[in-house]
Structure formats: structure tokens, C-alpha cells
Amino acid sequence: MEYLLIFTAVAGIVLFVAFFLHSTREAREEYQGTGGAKLEPGDFWSDLGPPASAAVSGIFSSEDEQFIVSEADERVSALFRRERKRLALRWIEHQKQEASGIMSRHRDASRRAADLQPANEVKLFLRYARLKVTFEFLAVSVWLVGPQRLRGLAEEANAVFHGMQNVKTLRGN
Amino acid sequence: MVDYLIWVAAIPLDILLIARSLRGDYFKRYPIFYSYISFVLLQSVARFTVYHLKPDWYASVYWFTEFVAIIAGCSVVFEFCRLGLKSYPGVAKMARVGLIAAFLFTFSKVLFTAAQGTDGWTPALTFLLERDIRFVQIAATAILVAIVLLYRIPVSRNLKGIVLGYGFYLGTVVTNLTFLGVFGGRVQSAASRIQASSYMVTLLIWTVALWSYDSVATQASGEARRYSAICAETNEQLAQSKSAVESLLP
Question: What tens digit of pLDDT does each residue of B126-167 get?
């Protein structure tokens, strides 16, 4: 029985890792193919000014999808969804690389600082780790449900969470 | 016979390492490391002598010198930390905190194993206690190496060799002692052969890495910024990155 449990746990972990790597591989490969973090002026992702952030917001909104679904056939809709997912994953990969770059620059600068504070370094590292986990979670979610449905999913999760909080409050009263 | 040959062959290698250090004046540059090597040489000679002259005493001498050697082995990690991070006081501070954390975490395990010995000290328990103490050293070495890699601290060939050799030895010993603790006398012969061979490989790594002196890299020139300013800048950039994600979700 114990061996069965261990085997199931190991198989589960292997499957999860395989699934996780598969979900982010496409974006990673494409991102590396485009030259990684080397950005040129005018690149779509190079700045997060109003036009770029509006475009990113557009990728994750469902308005375009609703329009395509109402106007085009199933093949065009599928192509649209695939391209949107690709773009979203690429944006997430770009953000991950940016975050890694921030920490890399931080370590380069702080290794020479005589007044380095270990507690602050640990706090920064945890903050960075949390950010990385968010990116990974986002990538898996986009791969599973697509960028357009992500917002709806988050809203639903939020509503469920608030509902649970309300039940707890009622029980407390 | 093979065990005996490996054991005997390690002594000339120890002598060669010390002779090179005296000739090249490396003893002054790595005093703690070479003191440790000298101690190991004396230990090997003492064990060898007792083995031939007073075989009954061998077990007691072995375990006494083994535990002294384990404590002395900590100095290798200390030497790496002292010389490798000499020009980086901030990172050295970080390493000290990491080493203390590793020590506290793993020392509790050592105490737990030692506490089991109050009911009766078995050979298997002795192996496990040695393994736990060695594990403290592995954790300390791993943390130190991680910090050096993370902060991209340039390390000389000599120091790389010291830490690589010692890390290899520790890894082999811990694996070996785990098997000894679990399977007992059945694997004793193979275990002692593996342990002696691993020390030979370690000596070879040290001899190659310390054959000539490679100066410890010093800090690159340029003005060092205040840590608080660097930290504030990084925090701000991470906050921007976080808000970019949060703006997508409600």
C-alpha cells in the first residue's frame, strides 16, 4: 500500500513537471528565437507605456474573441485563439526574463556593497520568488484556458473566495 | 590488499602536496588548508603505525582521529570563505548568516542522533553520527558555493580546487556512511575501499589545483553604491513588474 502511494506521488510529480514544462516550452523557445531579452527601440514589449500596456490588456480581454466568434467561422476563431495564446505566453516569458534581469543587476550591484543586509536580501529574494511563481501560474493558466478567459476565471475565483469569507463571517456571528 | 595499497598511496600524495606548498610558499597563502593537510598526514601516519604495532588499539585510535579530523575539516570551508570573499564584505556577511543557518538546522539532527546513543552506542549509530556531522559540512559548503555562484564572485583556480575536492570527498563519505548505517557489516569492506579511494581522488584534485599559485581575484575597480539605494531601485522595478501582471487580473 505504501509503495503504491509513493509510486502515485512520484508519477503525479513527474506528470505535473512534464505538463508544466510543456505549457511554457513554446513561449520560451519562441522568445529565445527572437533574441531573448535584447530589445530594440520601438519593440512591442520594449516599454510598458500606454500603447504597449493597452495592447497587452487587449490580449487578455475577451472583446476581440467575441467579435471574431460572431463574425468568422470556427477555423478563423481557432486560429485567433491560438495566436492570442502564443502572444500571451510570449509576453509572460518576456516579463519573466525582465524579472530575472532585475535580480541579476541587483546582485551585480550589491555584491560590492559593504553595507549589504542579509535580511533584506532574503526579503528581496522571496519577493522575486513570489513573482516568478505568479508568472508560472499565469503561464499554466493561459495554456489551459487561454488569455481571454483568464480574467473571467479570476473574477469567478474572487467571487468564490469572497463567498467563503462571507460564510465564515456568518458562522462567526 | 587493495585497501591497504590505497591507504599507503595516500601518504606520499599528502607529502607531495605539502612539499609543493613549502617550495612555492603557498603555506603562507593558504595556512588553514595546509595545516589541515598536515594534520591528515600525521593522522594517516599515526593510524598506519598503530595498525602495525598495536592492532588492538586501532579501532579506538581510528574513531578518535576521525572525529578530530571532522572538526578540523570545517577549517577548509572557513578558508574558502575567508579568502574567496575577502574583497566582498557584504557577501561575506551573507555567507556567515547562511553558514549559521545551515549549522543550526543540521546540528539539531546531529544532537538527535547522539541522543539515541544514550541507550547503548552501536557501530551503526557511530556511522550515522559521523554522517550527520559530515552533513553539516556539506550543507555549509553547498550554501557557500551557491552564494559565490549567485553573486558571481570570481574565484581562483586554487580555491575552486580546494572546494571541489572537499565537496567530492564529503559527498562520497556521506553516501558511504548512509549505506554503512543501513546495511552494517555486510558492506564494510566495500565502504572502506570507497572511502579510501575517494580521499585519493580528493588528494589528486588538490594536487592538480594547487600545483601552482593562482592569485585570489580582487574586487573590480569602480565606485560601490550604497546598499539601501540599490535595494530601493530593485524593489521599485519588481513592483513595476508585479503591477504589470496585476493590471491584467481583477
Answer: 777 777 778 888 888 888 999 999 998 988 899 999 999 999
State how far the Cα of A19 lies from the Cα of A7, in Å rounded to an integer: 18
Question: Within 13 Å of residue A114, how many CA atoms lie on the same side as its CB?
Answer: 5
B161 near B206, Cβ under 8 Å? yes
Crossing angle for the helix pair A118-145 and B89-116, to the nearest 10 degrees? 80
The 3-state DSSP class for residue A39 equals: coil
For chain B, positions 16-75, list CB contacts with chain A under 8 A. none
A120 touches chain B (CB under 8 A): yes
Q: Does B221 reach chain A within 8 Å, measured CB to CB? A: no
- pTM to 2 decimals? 0.72
Looking at this predicted complex, what is its ipTM? Answer: 0.70
Q: Is A134 on the interface with B (CB under 8 A)?
A: yes
CA gap B17, B128 in Å, rounded: 31
- The distance in angstroms from the start CA to the end CA of chain A is 44
